[in-house]
Amino acid sequence: MTLPYSTFSEHLDALVSRAPDAIALIDQDQQISVTQLRARSRALAAGLARIGVKPGDRVAVWLPNCAAWVESFLACAHLGALVLAVNTRFRSLEVADIVGRGKADWLVFWPGFKGIDFQGILDDVAPEHLARLQGVVALAEAGEAVAPSVQGKPVHRYADLLATQDAAPVAHGNAGVLCFTTSGTTSKPKFVLHDQRTLLRHGAAVAQAFEYGPNSCILASAPFCGAFGFATLAGGLAQGVPVVCAPVFNAAQSADVLRRYAVTHTYANNEALVGMMQAAAPGDFSSARLFGFASFTPALDHMLDLARDAGVTLTGLYGSSELIALVAGQPRIAAEGDVSALHQPGGTLVYPDARVRARDPATGQVLPHGQSGEIEILSPSLMQGYLDNPEATRAAVTEDGYFKTGDLGYTLTPRQFVFQTRMGDSLRLSGFLVNPVEIEQVVETLPGVRACQVVGATKHGKIVPYAFVLLHPGAAADPAGWTAACKAAMAGFKAPVGFTVLDAFPSVESANSVKIQKHRLRDMADAMLSDSSSQASP
Q1: Which residues, 6 or more positions from 440, have their beta carbon under 8 angstroms from its beta carbon?
Q2: Could you tell me which of 90, 106, 401, 423 has the fewest CB atoms within 10 Å of its CB?
Q3: From which domain of life does this come (predicted)?
Q4: Residue 17 φ/ψ region, left for φ over 0, alpha for ψ in the -120 to 50 degree band, beta for the rest
């Protein structure tokens, strides 16, 4: 797919020229036209330039789904700065890692969002992680007090930057503009770098593959800081159709939004879709043309029943930070592929020239259709690489350009596949891919804990983390204290829902090593969670 432009600034200009009054965003019932979005993002770019943001700078954007997130991204794209996307559910350890290891020069955040003490979280970040920061931008309501500095770094009000009278600098050309963070096979998240041209082309491919038209309206159910949320935004911006965003996902409010704005498309995890359909009144989904899911939770059958009753067409999806989400969706008509896979994650790749194959991890042989192996994908949406990590970049891509997904699945055609599960032990929690090592390392710093293994268990149809620990001699179990400490250090969805103390982890000796049998731990965790009296077993 070839586009006549390679930057978001050029694309905004084209949208304004074509339909200046078209609605680009709906943010908490405020409708923002493409003309207003361009004006606000250019004004913000001028304000950011005035305080010193320059091409190549790295800007950590720690905001929920709102107009300010989009404006900040577009302003950075205009300036040639790189956005490090930060999840608002992250806490001090995770923020420290992204800001510090990501070498952020600036930070944009919303101190009063959702009643969370973001200022306090930043205060808990060790100074060395903020040493590179030149300044902080705070989103605040008129008259709302904002601290003048964060650990000695000056704080600038977002509204003041928007109000600058300076002219925006000349738009920067195509360059790396967005980094998602993702957990791979190592203990630290990697920074997945995409440039403007790739993101724009992907948005156009999504809009075409999922059949956006003049009357389409897209609900952003997933956070813009992740690949699924950003792909949702990019598809809407590509077609110039409204994207409805809300800082906090609420199932009942989302169902109401669907009706009021005649939403046609949304993409979410199973839990969010089920919540919306349960909260909806008759007729709320009359405008729905396609809802996509990526099987982030196992409660699939119930979701299909609800969708059938609501008259909603569901399709399985696939995406990753490295390839961007919505890179594949299961076909709805036979001309696009095998429709029997409609309700399975994976899909037909949205690019006509993209290809998929499965490789046997033991023999290295490419497998025939229908046989399970590691999924490898050749797609124009492939990342530029892992930021500051060329070795990991080389290891992630085959010599002929296929991305090694680390996912188990099988192909149906050269463009269609079914995703089955992760090759490793990564967890999909609240829609985010999480490396259990991240959680284990935090638990192992807690009082009395000598070692930890975290597995994904099922609770009320949802995958949740469960921790098994070994104690230091003489130490006592403290599940309540451990839970509180984990919730203070990490996003809530990463905090283990239970702790069980073992004398030793179940293991088996292989030719090369002693391997912990995580499948046995998963079975134990599932059994404990099925009996509520065992959840805090010491």
Answers
A1: 452, 453, 454, 467
A2: 401
A3: Bacteria
A4: alpha
- CATH domain 31-173 topology: Rossmann fold (3.40.50)
DSSP 8-state assignment for residue 290: E
What is the value of pTM for the model shown? 0.86
Could you report the per-residue pLDDT of 190-205, keeping only the tens digit for each?
Answer: 999 999 999 999 999 9
Tell me which CATH homologous superfamily contains domain 435-534.
Answer: ANL, C-terminal domain (3.30.300.30)
Structure tokens given for 518 = 């995580």
> Over the stretch 149-171, which tens digit does the pLDDT of each residue have?
999 999 999 999 999 999 999 99
Q: How far is CA 147 from CA 122, 134, 151, 479, in A?
A: 12, 16, 10, 36
The CATH number assigned to the domain with range 191-422 reads 3.40.50.12780
Please tell me the distance from the alpha carbon of residue 265 to that of residue 281, in angstroms, as a whole number: 18
Q: Cα separation of 421 and 439, whole Å?
A: 20
Residue range(s) of every CATH 3.40.50.12780 domain in the chain: 191-422
Provide CATH 3.40.50.980 ranges for the chain. Answer: 31-173
- Put residue 406 in one of left, alpha, beta given phi > 0 → left and psi -120 to 50 → alpha: left
